[in-house]
Amino acid sequence: xxxxxxxxxVKSLAxxxxxxxxLFAVCAVGVCVMLSVLMVTDGMLDSMTEKMRQxxxxxxxxxxxxxxxxxxxxxxxxLREILPKDAEVSYRDKKDSGDKSLFFEGASVRQRSLQGVNxxxxxxxxxxxxxxxxxxxxxxxxxxxxxxxxxxxxxxVHIGDNVVLLLKTPFGYQNTVDxxxxxxxxxxxxxxxxxxxxxxxxxxxxxxxxxYDTPELSYKMIxxxxxxxxxxxxxxxxxxxxxxxxxxxxDMFPFSFDKSDWQNYETPEEKRVFAMIPLAANVSDLxxxxxxxxxxxxLVVVMLVAIISVGISSTFRVIVLKRAVEGGTFRAxxxxxSGLMALYFAEILLLLLSGTAVGFAASLVIxxxxxxxxxxxxxxxxxxxxxxxxxxxxxxxxxxxLVGIIFVTTLGAVLFTLRKLVHISxxxxxxxxx
Length: 434
Description:
It is a single chain. This protein is of the alpha+beta class. The protein has helices spanning 2-15, 17-56, 72-82, 123-127, 149-155, 200-207, 236-247, 259-263, 279-282, 284-322, 324-332, 337-370, 396-418, 426-433; strands spanning 60-64, 88-95, 100-104, 107-110, 113-117, 131-134, 144-148, 162-168, 174-185, 195-199, 224-228, 274-278. Strands 1, 2, 3, 4, 5, 6, 7, 8, 9, 10, 11 and 12 form a 12-stranded mixed beta sheet that branches. The mean pLDDT is 86.
């Protein structure tokens, strides 16, 4: 019997194609716009998040009231026991203050941030960088450096060139080190444009710490221990699980998504306290921007759902009224109101399925076309781009939920609208027509 309803529904839609054209268009255009906006926005936020992960070294970091120094090995060993096997655990040091410049054959460019990293420990993280030349390479001489394409263009350098780094050390004097450019990455955002990543040993040498090494001790200055999940950002539950395990081994500052809580904390002198800082805590302003974008998308989705459900249900009601004689004929032949409702329900369901399929296909074409254009010329917009272009992301679960909401609300609205019309009698149908 169900197949009979769908057979009638297919014939009805084919015979009344002109009448249903507007309903089909509402569904297809609505789904297309909704999915296009969703994919572009998700892609922009994914690009922003990935740049944040690259700049901060991963998905969360472990800080201490003082530089970790000898304690960083204990923290790293504990993390390796707690974390999934594919998670990367590394250490970094960073210099954001003071003069820092790169020189090459008379040209120079200032750097906002220098990060000393262990490229071998952070291989998975640097594999996600968008390199236009070379890549992250750990040389035996420990003298490699990565810079952004805008910085490389200003210097006129390419991979394999030797550059000179000049900076002021914590000891008050200027120091220079020779470095080999092994990678140039595409990033003109606030995180990458004037950020350089260099081998940690070269970084120590540049800061002057290597001069204090002895045969027994290599003096290390560790700013933070970083953790990166190559498979994707960890959930809040995973972060809390790791924090709970760390609490059993170290004195931990209360977990918080507000980094200022830790920055304003006065640590006791008698013990070493560690803080676990999730990625979101480092960039609260950008998180507000992310939330604002998601709120806008949610508003667009709600509006489109309302347009589709109300538009289709109200227009379909008019169509059904014009088909009163047909409904009365079916009733005269013995069809129950529930059967008539099932027939109309099948028509709308097929209309939604076909409209959704066309809208989904159109959205893929639109986002593909949008990602073909290099938008890095827009000032400040590179934060949301990958390789200078939009990189739309399709999350099947999220899209399925939203399409499901459209189906449920539209079908519900149709059922509510037609609940009285399906009880029409043959005589009533004729009276309606006359």
